[in-house]
Amino acid sequence: MKAIYAGSFDPVTLGHLDIIKRAAKIFDTIVVAVLENPNKNCLFTVEERKKHLEIVTSDIKNVEVASFQGLLADFAKEIEADVAIRGLRNAVDFACEQQMHLINGRLNKNIETVFLAADESHISLSSSAVKEVAVFGGNIDFMVPKEIIGFVQEKYMKRGV
Ligand code: ADP
């Protein structure tokens, strides 16, 4: 079975990577799909985010990295995915994800959503938290995969913040 795990991944966190690794043990293929959202002001370009995901998943054989615009339901249909993976950190995530699941179900009846509960050590992690800490030069070692730390720091150095 083919699964899609979509998100902004701006940047990819240890929480995202944990979900990818666990999903890769359950499904034959995982397509990690970076959402190209022109309305969202992202720190990294889509190409950079794809590169980061490729680096951190290079040792997982059944993971592919892609990007898409528009609806997840449409992209899932295009790549013939059977399942959409979502990570759940807390009740707020659950409420959002439940709504999305219901809407996606109406848009693409062939896709089933599978939720994976976040690991205890990743519950407080989010891409926005990484950016909030990194902007002030704080330690992000426990938030993002080690290969990604330098990319985040470099971005803020270039911005001169
Ligand atoms: P979005 O643009 O939808 O916020 P994200 O890249 O932040 O995308 O998240 C993509 C998916 O990963 C969502 O299902 C989200 O709930 C899940 N996720 C985000 N952070 C974590 C985490 N720390 N642990 C587990 N799942 C997470």
Any overview of this molecule?
There is one protein chain. It contains six helices and five strands. With about 160 residues, the chain is of the alpha/beta class. The chain has one domain (about 1-160): 3-Layer(aba) Sandwich (Rossmann fold). It has a five-stranded parallel beta sheet with strand order 3-2-1-4-5, with helices on both faces. The protein is globular and about 45 Å long. The mean pLDDT is about 95. Adenosine-5'-diphosphate (ADP) binds near residues 9, 13, 19, 118 and 125.
The gist of it:
This protein is of the alpha/beta class and 161 residues long. It has helices spanning 14-26, 46-56, 72-78, 91-107, 127-134, 146-159; strands at residues 2-7, 29-35, 63-68, 83-88, 112-117. 43% of the residues lie in helices and 19% in strands.
Please specify the SSE layout and strand pairing:
Layout lengths: L1 E6 L6 H13 L2 E7 L10 H11 L6 E6 L3 H7 L4 E6 L2 H17 L4 E6 L9 H8 L11 H14 L2
Parallel strand pairs: 1-2, 1-4, 2-3, 4-5
The structure holds adenosine-5'-diphosphate.
Adenosine-5'-diphosphate binds next to helix 1 and strand 4.
